[in-house]
Every structure is written in structure tokens, then in C-alpha cells.
Amino acid sequence: MSAVRIRVVRPGELNAGEIESWRELRAKSGAPANPFMEPEFTLAVGRERSGARVAVLREDGEAAGFFPYEKRSLGRGRAIGFGVSDSQGAVLRPGITLTADELMKACGISCWEFDNLEAQQGLFVPDAAETYSSYVIDIGHGYETYESALRTRSPKFLKTTLAKERRMGRRLGGLRFVFDERDPAALRQLMEWKSAQYRRTGRGDRFAKEWISNLVQYLAHLRTPGCSGILSVLYAEDRPVAAHFGLRSRTVLACWFPSYEPEFAKYSPGLVLHLRMAEGAAAAGIGMLDMGRGAAEYKDSLKTGELPVHEGASLRPGAGAALHWVGREPARRAHSFVRNRPKLAAFAQGSLEKAGRLRGK
């Protein structure tokens, strides 16, 4: 057994010193400063999820790490904010003498499920079942440098998108972009668009879940160096045509919920919005946009690189592990089978959209 001492608390029970230690450990980790890994995100989830917990680790009398998770019934556990958190894992001091089994035992869980585990999480990466790409835009050298690279790598894409932007401006009376919009009406509009998009494409509406809706609205007002809500809106005069809500740290903008007014789809307002977000983020000192996992044509066109993220579960003997295996593994394996076969994936997507149209009638 390790010499690490572990106590488990609710997020709101962390004291100011522990929160600051969390920030310091994270800053020293060398990993991208993803806002989902900051204490503020865990604190926000703790307001909405009764099972939210944090394991506080101490070694040799000093703060050695923090492990945020959600505890469910029968010893099941999952990443904090599972289903909406785009970067997951523990915040640990390098060289800490601890195993995943010891940590989970101290937390009272026999299963810890993740779907966006960051690559630096050596404690849990061996338990990953799948690895995905999270697509990123590097704007560390400024927007002009990024656009120049895009002009070389994807000249047709950039030329077409900029032409649509000009055409949209002419037809709709001029465009303006706000990188950090504070109008709550614009956030409500985005959430309405996104809910309709989920239903239209046959997917579950995340905003129909009260805890997710409340979480987003809370984070929209949060302003801290490591984790702040950023609502970006593209307007045609005073009418929103596209919007995005995400989280930012000093150096990373984590893209989260983008959507647009379907009426203007022919102008590709979502693509225009992402270009203006990259420009606005660079001007705000941000060096990277993380567009998250999940293949999409627009991500492939905009990206400059990829970061690996992992999906899977760490297990130790117990009911939670057994329930995870029975309840999740068959579905995950089926999804993986479909995802790796493009024709079958296209058929499945078409079926989802058809189901969404039927539900909307």
C-alpha cells in the first residue's frame, strides 16, 4: 500500500487552500490548460449532481492530488460531469506512489467510467478500451498565421467560407461578431437551436436534462482565470445567426455547444462563426481551440492537429464493475463496430435523422 492519505469530500467542502493547491498542481502538470480539468468545473457540477465527490490526496504532509468523480449506486463511479465533460482524469503530483485500484478503493467505487480521458493520465490510460482524436486549432502564433496555413492546406474550403460570409453580410444587412457576449437572451437562443438540432438528428436533447441546462447557465456567468464561460455570437445586424458556448482558461478555449439558425444554412454560418472565434480567441491571448472528439467534416477542415482522448473504465472486484460490464460494454462494442465501418455508420446516421424527423412531426 502507498503512503498516500485520502479523504473524500463533496466539491463544496473543499477549502480555499485545497482549491489553490489543485490549481498549482494542474499548472505544473505540463498538460494543456483545459478548463474542464480546473476545480471550478468540478465545483459547478457539484451544485447540480448530488453524487459529485472529490478525493483529496496528501503525501508527506503535502497536497498530492485531487480526483473528481461522480459516485452512483452499488459502487459505480464515473468522470465528473460525465456526458458533457470533454477532458477527464485526476490531478496528481508527478511520481505519486498510488495505483488506480487503491484510489478507487478509497473512493468506495469498483468502477470508474470515462469517455474523454486525457492522454497524460497514466493511472487510468492502461484501462482504456478506445482512443479517439480531439481536434484542435493552434492559434498560438496569431490568427493571421493560422489563416495563412489554412489558405495553403485547404484553399478551396477557406475561399468558399469567406465568400459565403461576404454573401451573408450583403443579403442580411451586415454581420458583426461578439467573442464574449453577456446577453442571456443570446444564450437562450443558442440552447433552443441546439435542442432542435439534437431532435432533428435523432439524438437525445442534452438541454432537456435540468442539471445540464442549469450547469451551462451557471458557467455562463463564471469568470475565473482557469475556467470562464464564453458565449460567442455571430449577428446579422441585431439578429443572431450562429452562436457557441464553451469554456476558456488563459490559453485554451474548449469548444462545447455550437449551433446556428437553420434558415441560413446555405451560408454556412457555423463555419464562419468558428473562423471568427479563432480570430477572437487569438486576440484574447488564447493559443488553442479544442473542438473535442467526434469526427465531423467542419473539424477536419478547420483543425491544425489532434490530441488523443480515451474511453473506457477502470474496474476492481465489486458489483459496480459487474453492472458496468453488463450495462455498457455491449453497447460500446456495438458502437465501435459501426464507427469503424463507414457505410454502416452512414446508414446508422441516416436512420437517426429519420427517427428525429418522425419525432418532430
UniProtKB/TrEMBL annotation:
Residue ranges occupied by any BioF2-like acetyltransferase domain in the UniProt entry: 159-299
Source lineage: Bacteria, Bacillati, Actinomycetota, Actinomycetes, Kitasatosporales
Identification of the protein by name: GNAT family N-acetyltransferase
Pfam families linked to this entry: Acetyltransf_6
Gene3D superfamilies: 3.40.630.30
